[in-house]
């Protein structure tokens, strides 16, 4: 059984203060009459170059700064088996797992993107490299110093500055540290033991020519207890900072460093000033702790055969997840939304750490035994909850095949084995023990709790626009139901009976976790986009299970006066009708929604002016055998 935290009601406290100086949207004046130009919000950026090379393994991992734009951020890898991407409090950590290439996409909550092309070459063919871009700018002084990775080629390395009075270069175990000493420019030459070289052109501008800035974005989201540090520069030092709500966020300045401390859930405005009245405002949000703890359906410790790749589910917590492995030569991990895959590569042990965007972690010890010495195992946890009529699949391995399974109470739960697959079906409400055997008589026991019916939500996920209200229907499970939103800044959710109401508040992504009285859980995935002009349907992207037949409602916005026509691209799966008074489109299922593969159905509305709006409904293949 999955243990979860019970709901805790948290009140978000908001506060704001007015910026002194200009007032309104116009530049202001200091007491001395000096004009103050409000700083512009920096666009989304990362300190990583557009193209970088990583040495494979944890020792080659690098951490880069992500800032600007509108927090919070999401980072994904186009090939998680080659490069893993994890957003930590200290920045974006990229780890090369195996030889290959991948694109890292960084997305802020306003939809802005940044890309990093990463190559992981074989160790014996890795050319000399540095993580610094070919041309960089350093703020003068120790506070503006930056450290970059140096690798590849043949160690040891040497780094020299063409103008040591402008930029100093120092190599250490931490990497190459470059410090701007005075205004000017210098070329940094890096040499390896064979004479291979890399160059960095460094410019140190005049401090007074730099506009007042901070590396912190205009809006930040920080988990309770985190204390991120950002840089300040430009303008006219010294700098100061004030918080509009110190019960939520406190902040301090030391030289050119700004430290923000998240105290409790809520919102606050940080006002940073330089000595001549320059002002930077930062909207700080501290999400309330998740009411459902971060969890995974993976056992507390797992054994994975070489070549096997069992799948598990991640849920609860903040709703945005990352997963890393401590030993990529033994086991690699990939995470797609809430689906976690752990693949065994070679004999040994590793720890898989699942982390949410609030900083919570779950660690799963992984053992990959040598081929031929694998102990009898199953990927099923020792205790599971199954809905009546549901039939989850688990893996069996090790020991000596063939395998078999039996149940202590066939009226409650049944078990069947097909090769290395174990299927446990919920038959009636109650508890039963499933015993799995190998041919030598070795036993594994699984405790099964069967609820009334499988917990389900229709639709399974949706995409909508800020300020939209989405409705989903809960079926199966055991009432009462409750819901938890991973990121309360993106959306809020409430339950009334078996109806889930979700209100979209901010651009971003999150997961709503619905639980029943037996702690069965199911995820409802959300994507929130900015509004666009013209006719549209809300939600405009919907995911449905092939197992259900419940009706689904879409709302028409922005249509001209008059009648609306609606069309379905596949009448065998979904029939669409529209109420021209309420402007609600209802989707009904004629018969069943069984599909052989994920199937998109396009719903199109046409208003009296012949403008069109479209929604895509994806019917997901859940493994049913279609008649």
Number of strands: 60
Proportion in β-strands: over 45%
Strand order of the largest sheet: 48-51-52-46-54-60-59-56
Main sheet, how many strands, which sense, barrel? Answer: 8 strands, mixed
Task: Tell me the radius of gyration.
Answer: 28 Å
Give a brief description:
The protein is built from no helices and 60 strands. The chain is mostly beta strands and 627 residues long. Among the domains are: 82 residues, Immunoglobulin-like (Sandwich); 77 residues, Sandwich (Immunoglobulin-like); 93 residues, Immunoglobulin-like, CATH 2.60.40.
Annotation keywords:
Immunoglobulin-like; 627 residues; 0% helix; globular; four-stranded mixed β-sheet; mainly beta; disordered N terminus
What features would you describe in this structure?
It is built from no helices and 60 strands. By secondary structure, the chain is mainly β. Among the domains are: 28-33 and 211-286, Immunoglobulin-like (Sandwich), CATH 2.60.40.1080; 455-531, Immunoglobulin-like (Sandwich), CATH 2.60.40; 535-627, Sandwich (Immunoglobulin-like), CATH 2.60.40. Strand 59 and strand 60 (612-620) form a beta hairpin.
């Amino acid at each position: 059984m999955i243990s979860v935290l019970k709901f805790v009601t948290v009140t978000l406290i908001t506060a704001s203060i007015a910026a002194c100086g200009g007032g309104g949207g116009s530049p202001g004046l200091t007491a001395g009459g000096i004009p103050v130009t409000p700083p512009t919000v920096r666009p989304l950026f990362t300190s990583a170059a557009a193209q970088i090379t990583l040495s494979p393994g944890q020792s080659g991992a690098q951490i880069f700064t992500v800032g600007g734009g509108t927090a919070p951020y999401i980072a994904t890898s186009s090939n998680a088996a080659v490069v893993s991407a994890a957003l930590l409090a200290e920045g974006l950590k990229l780890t090369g797992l195996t030889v290959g290439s991948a694109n890292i996409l960084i997305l802020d909550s306003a939809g802005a993107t940044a890309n990093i092309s990463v190559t992981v070459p074989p160790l014996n063919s890795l050319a000399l490299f540095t993580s610094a871009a070919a041309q960089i700018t350093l703020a003068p002084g120790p506070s503006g110093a930056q450290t970059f990775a140096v690798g590849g080629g043949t160690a040891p390395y040497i780094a020299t500055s063409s103008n040591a009075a402008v930029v100093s270069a120092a190599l250490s175990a931490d990497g190459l540290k470059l410090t701007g000493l005075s205004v000017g420019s210098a070329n940094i030459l890096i040499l390896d033991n064979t004479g291979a070289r890399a160059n960095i052109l460094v410019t140190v501008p005049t401090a007074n020519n730099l506009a007042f800035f901070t590396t912190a974005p205009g809006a930040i989201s920080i988990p309770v207890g985190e204390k991120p540090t950002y840089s300040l520069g430009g303008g006219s030092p010294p700098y100061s900072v004030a918080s509009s709500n110190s019960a939520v966020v406190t902040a301090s300045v030391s030289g050119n460093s700004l430290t923000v401390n998240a105290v409790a859930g809520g919102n606050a405005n940080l006002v940073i000033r330089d000595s001549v009245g320059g002002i930077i405002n930062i909207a700080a949000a501290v999400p309330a702790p998740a009411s459902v703890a971060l969890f995974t359906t993976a056992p507390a410790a797992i054994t994975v055969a070489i070549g096997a790749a069992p799948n598990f589910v991640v849920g609860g917590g903040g709703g945005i997840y990352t997963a890393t492995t401590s030993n990529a030569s033994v086991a690699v991990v990939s995470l797609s939304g809430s689906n976690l895959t752990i693949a065994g590569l070679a004999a040994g042990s590793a720890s898989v750490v699942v982390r949410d965007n609030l900083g919570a972690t779950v660690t799963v010890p992984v053992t990959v035994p040598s081929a031929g010495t694998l102990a009898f195992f199953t990927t099923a946890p020792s205790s599971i909850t199954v809905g009546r009529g549901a039939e989850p699949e688990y893996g069996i391995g090790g020991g000596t095949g063939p395998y078999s399974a039996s149940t202590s109470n066939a009226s409650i739960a049944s078990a069947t084995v097909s090769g290395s697959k174990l299927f446990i079906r919920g038959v009636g409400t109650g508890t039963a023990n499933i015993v799995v055997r190998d041919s030598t008589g070795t036993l594994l026991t699984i405790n099964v709790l069967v609820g009334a019916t499988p917990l389900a939500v229709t639709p399974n996920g949706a995409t909508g626009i800020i300020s939209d209200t989405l409705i989903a229907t809960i079926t199966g499970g055991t009432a009462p139901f409750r819901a938890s939103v991973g990121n309360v800044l993106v959306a809020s959710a409430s339950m009334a009976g078996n109806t889930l109401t979700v209100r979209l508040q901010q651009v971003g992504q999150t997961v709503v976790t619905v639980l029943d009285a037996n702690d069965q859980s199911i995820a409802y995935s959300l994507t929130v986009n900015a509004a666009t002009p013209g006719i549209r349907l809300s939600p405009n992207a919907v995911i449905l299970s092939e197992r259900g037949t419940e009706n689904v409602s879409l709302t028409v916005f922005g249509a001209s006066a008059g009648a609306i026509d609606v069309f379905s691209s596949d009448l065998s799966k979904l029939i669409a009708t529209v109420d021209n008074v309420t402007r609600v489109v209802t989707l009904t299922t004629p018969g069943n929604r069984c599909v052989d593969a994920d199937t998109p159905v396009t719903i199109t509305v046409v208003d009296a002016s012949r403008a069109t709006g479209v929604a895509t409904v994806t019917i997901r293949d859940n493994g049913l055998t279609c008649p």
